[in-house]
Write a sequence for this structure.
């Protein structure tokens, strides 16, 4: 069959209506009615407000402002936060399920969405009550954007190597240093910055501070050009003798490492949900295109390939939901279990998107179908929030401990 690309584009857009059809009852049995309701709400907002904007955001590199605002207006911006701070007090599973829906349509919007949570969560974990009430509600409502500033030019996963300093002075601190690869850095109003107050103490010398981007000495660089996630900006942040009041320190001095470790649980669940969502998006788009190409008579070898993807997506969703449920029951879930989820689910997103571009041949390379966008967006999920190599290291340490305990 010979077709015009625009015909395929219209057909591929119908993937939004496929997700109800593609839901797996075995996966859904683990969800509460409230979690299913939130998924339904998110699916509707995504279909109306997020998916239609995704191609333009990717093509032009426009920030996903309208898409995020639509999600926040629907009450989805504060799922894991208490109601008194503007949240809805829902489960981590609910958050993961909503993230899946957003990522299936637009990876960049899901990155903006999760960065808001990542910026607000350390404040919830360790901020004083006045600091929580000042900064969290605007982040959840979308009236302010936030960033979590950890990575530096010479310090990424190793937080103990931070060179940004916070030197006590008077009733506060003076903050100096550079952060890089910071999501939403060019638009952030609220920055959670991690800095060392005692470089000789390494991890024990790291502290966390809430910094307002409007304060003197805070500047940002231009957004980086990137392979994917074009609707989400990534840039450098510069702190030049920034005066930070002591009241804006999160927790005790030197508590930064523990705050990071508590926060990365949520951030790695975010990345894992992105991986599952991107896999679902690539799979659904592929089915829509195949339907247009072959009608109802899809070749057997193609169906065989699709069967493998379906199995892996179901497994990834079950793993994501199970670990998120465990985190709700036990916030101290081991790093290895969190790492297993993050690594497996983000590898899933990459593998399915890569397979989809190959399976569709020349159609997989067409930007207007969105499959190649899934592939580009999936790549970075294996890098941020702890590279998958780091996750394998965490998993391997737990395996080594099991071996040691064996009789």
């Amino acid at each position: 069959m010979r077709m015009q690309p625009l015909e395929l584009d219209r057909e591929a857009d119908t993937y939004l209506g496929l997700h109800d059809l593609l839901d797996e009852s075995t996966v859904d049995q683990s969800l509460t009615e409230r979690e299913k309701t939130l998924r339904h709400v998110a699916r509707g907002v995504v279909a109306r407000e997020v998916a239609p904007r995704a191609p333009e955001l990717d093509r032009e590199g426009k920030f996903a402002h309208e898409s995020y605002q639509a999600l926040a207006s629907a009450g989805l911006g504060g799922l894991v936060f208490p109601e008194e701070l503007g949240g809805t007090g829902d489960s981590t599973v609910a958050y993961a399920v909503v993230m899946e829906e957003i990522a299936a349509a637009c990876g960049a919007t899901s990155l903006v969405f999760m960065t808001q949570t990542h910026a607000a969560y350390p404040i919830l974990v360790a901020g004083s009550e006045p600091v929580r009430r000042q900064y969290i509600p605007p982040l959840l409502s979308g009236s302010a954007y936030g960033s979590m500033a950890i990575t530096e030019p010479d310090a990424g996963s190793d937080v103990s190597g931070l060179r940004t300093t916070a030197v006590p002075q008077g009733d506060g601190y003076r903050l100096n240093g550079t952060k890089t690869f910071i999501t939403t850095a060019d638009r952030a109003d609220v920055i959670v910055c991690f800095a060392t107050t005692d470089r000789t103490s390494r991890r024990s010398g790291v502290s966390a501070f809430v910094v307002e981007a409007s304060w003197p000495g805070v500047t940002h660089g231009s957004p980086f050009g990137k392979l994917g996630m074009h609707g989400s900006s990534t840039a450098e942040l510069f702190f030049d003798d920034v005066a930070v009041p002591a009241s804006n320190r999160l927790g005790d001095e030197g508590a930064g490492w523990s705050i990071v470790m508590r926060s990365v649980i949520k951030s790695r669940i975010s990345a894992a949900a992105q991986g599952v969502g991107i896999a679902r998006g690539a799979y659904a788009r592929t089915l829509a295109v195949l339907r247009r190409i072959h009608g109802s008579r899809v070749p057997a070898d193609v169906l065989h390939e699709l069967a493998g993807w379906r199995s892996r997506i179901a497994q990834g969703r079950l793993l994501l939901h199970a670990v998120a449920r465990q985190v709700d029951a036990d916030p101290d879930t081991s790093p290895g279990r969190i790492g297993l989820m993050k690594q497996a689910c983000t590898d899933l997103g990459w593998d399915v998107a890569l397979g989809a571009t190959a399976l569709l041949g020349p159609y997989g390379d067409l930007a207007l179908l969105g499959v190649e966008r899934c592939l580009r967006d999936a790549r970075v999920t294996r890098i941020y929030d702890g590279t998958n190599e780091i996750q394998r290291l965490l998993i391997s340490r737990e395996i080594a401990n099991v071996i040691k305990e064996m009789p």
